[in-house]
Automatic annotation (TrEMBL):
This is Uncharacterized protein.
């Protein structure tokens, strides 16, 4: 087993009565240079401590240097950021999960931004984790805050919740400390897959993926630049088909993009809060074009990964961050004369499947709507829904949003208002212009009405309203087929019967018709053909070869079967 017996040199700074780890080095000379540099600032005292771990796991420390400084500069100590929700976790594996890391990132945001580190770099790197554990009362304060949230949400015991968190941290620290002494492969011109392969050949006791993350975070921690970390991670993943390598990069990117400072470095500064939110949404959707000063080369690497849905954890973190931004009290624009960013935000966050990121984003949008109207208390939810619905056009977008609203816990509070809003949405179905938009093409209109019919069936609208909506959508589509003579255009008498029959059957199974009046109209035309005398003879009467006739008939009846006839 490759083991490197070495000293670690910690530069510690005195704050009040406590010594806090300022930096860690493998070389004593580097620690001395940093200590002298720190002493030039306003600090009470500086120490260099040599740390050595014995074979039995005990740490032996020796103070090599201690000097008094010019006095405490009175810098504001780093504290935990107040949070109101936290992922439940009881084990070290829970701590390593994306939701837990996202919570930790928010809770210790000031610390991570000061150190230019991510939760991943701390959890897999014992030097970084030890530094956090010795950083004043930061970690105990964080545990206490999360334990309070856990005990409140689970109706459990605060002390028990805190004990579970401390045990999970201690277990993770023990794992990180155990592998710290391993001489792992470097990432010099190597991909994650190649490093994993080398680690597997070492046959060490710890899990290969855990060790690979240790090796990866050792390199990442050496960079003091968010963009440098991103660029490195995206370039070492290697083969795009290597799912495990991409998952590791996904973890790293998710943590980096959880930092507002990293997002600003990546996308460039924004003119206002609304523009920043739009940039973050575009990034999550894989369509980001940064402002002046953006790291466009890194964006060009990220965009295709996000667009293809290949980085689900990073997308989760981004959309979670966007939802929190929308819930914040920050104004989207600086003055009333500016264009309303909310309309553009809704354009990006709502599609035919509903609101992107589901219920957390629906609730965030409703809260933002209530803020726009400056309404709180019991009226906030209803006013928020009305404000968002007012900014949505054409009708299908309002219906998609309102269908998602029915799944909110508070939807029952506004059942009457919700029903009135929804009925108005399908009140005008003439030509499907108001519902689908003036610019929509015929096939797009039919497909959209059918999609919305499916959305309504999956919604939590009360049954009477659901029946009314389904009926309005089906009647509107059927009227459109008649008004626009859609079936007549498909069933062109100038074409051969076989072409007309094929096109009609495919139209029936194309997914643009509702199983109701509209589908019945199209199927009726097909059934009319099938009942014609000598239909099969007419279907192939222009073909000469008997084998071709048999094959054509066989294909047609197979198509009928697949189409439900």
């Amino acid at each position: 087993m490759p083991v490197t017996t070495a000293y670690t040199y910690e530069v510690r700074v005195k704050r009040g009565d406590r010594w806090i780890i300022h930096a860690t080095y493998d070389v004593e000379k580097e620690a001395q240079i940093e200590a002298e540099s720190v002493l030039r600032g306003k600090v009470s005292a500086v120490r260099i401590v040599r740390d050595w771990e014995r074979e039995d796991g005990r740490h032996i420390e020796k103070v090599l240097l201690e000097k008094e400084g010019q006095g405490d500069g009175g810098d504001e100590p780093v504290r935990v950021t107040p949070i109101e929700d936290a992922a439940l976790c009881e084990t070290d594996e829970d701590l390593l999960g994306v939701e837990s890391r996202s919570t930790i990132n928010r809770l210790l945001r000031k610390y991570f931004e000061q150190e230019v580190l991510t939760p991943t770099e701390v959890m897999y790197n014992y030097k970084n984790l030890r530094k956090l554990m010795y950083h004043d009362t930061l970690l105990p304060s964080a545990v206490d805050r999360v334990a309070t949230i856990h005990s409140r949400t689970t109706e459990g015991n605060h002390i028990e919740a805190a004990s579970k968190l401390h045990r999970a941290i201690d277990t993770l620290a023990a794992r990180a400390r155990q592998v710290e002494k391993y001489d792992l492969p470097q990432f010099e011109d190597a991909t994650i897959a190649e490093v994993r392969r080398e680690i597997r050949q070492l046959r060490l006791a710890e899990d290969t993926d855990f060790l690979t993350m240790v090796a990866l975070t050792r390199h990442l921690s050496s960079s003091r630049s968010w963009i440098g970390k991103l660029d490195f991670a995206l370039k070492v993943k290697g083969d795009p088909k290597d799912n495990r390598a991409r998952a590791m990069v996904d973890d790293v990117v998710a943590d980096i993009l959880g930092s507002p400072v990293a997002l600003k470095d990546l996308l460039g500064p924004s003119r206002n809060f609304g523009e920043a939110v739009l940039l973050h949404i575009d990034l999550a959707l894989g369509k980001a074009r940064g402002n002046r000063g953006a790291a466009q080369d890194v964006l060009d690497l990220l965009n295709p990964l996000f667009a293809a849905g290949l980085m689900p954890k990073a997308q989760f973190v981004l959309f979670d961050y966007i939802a929190r931004e929308l819930k914040s009290p920050n104004s989207l624009s600086r003055s009333e004369e500016d264009a309303n960013p909310l309309v553009e935000i809704l354009d990006r966050l709502l599609n035919a499947d509903g609101v992107v990121f589901g219920q957390p984003m629906v609730e965030a949008l409703v809260e933002r709507g209530a803020r726009v109207r400056n309404v709180g208390g019991s009226r906030a939810f209803g006013e928020g829904v009305d404000e968002i619905a007012t900014n949505l056009a054409p009708g299908w977008r309002r219906l998609a949003f309102l269908a998602d609203v029915t799944k909110c816990e508070r939807a029952g509070e506004i059942e009457g208002e919700l029903a009135e809003l929804t009925r108005k949405t399908v009140a005008d179905m003439r030509g499907l212009r108001a519902f689908c938009g003036m610019q929509a093409k015929p096939r797009e209109k039919m497909a959209m009405v059918t999609r919305m019919h499916e959305n309504v069936s999956r919604s939590n609208f009360v049954e009477d309203l659901k029946h009314h909506l389904s009926e309005r959508l089906d009647n509107g589509l059927a009227d459109y087929l008649i008004r626009e003579k859609v079936i007549e255009r498909i069933d062109n008498p100038d074409l051969h019967l076989r072409q007309r029959a094929y096109m009609l059957v495919k139209f029936c199974s194309s997914g643009v018709l509702i199983e109701g009046k509209s589908a019945t109209m199209a199927r009726k035309r097909v059934v009319g053909y099938l009942r014609q005398p000598n239909f099969t003879d007419h279907l192939v009467d222009d073909l000469q070869d008997s084998g071709e006739k048999e094959g054509t008939l066989r294909d047609f009846y197979a198509l009928l079967q697949r189409s439900g006839f």
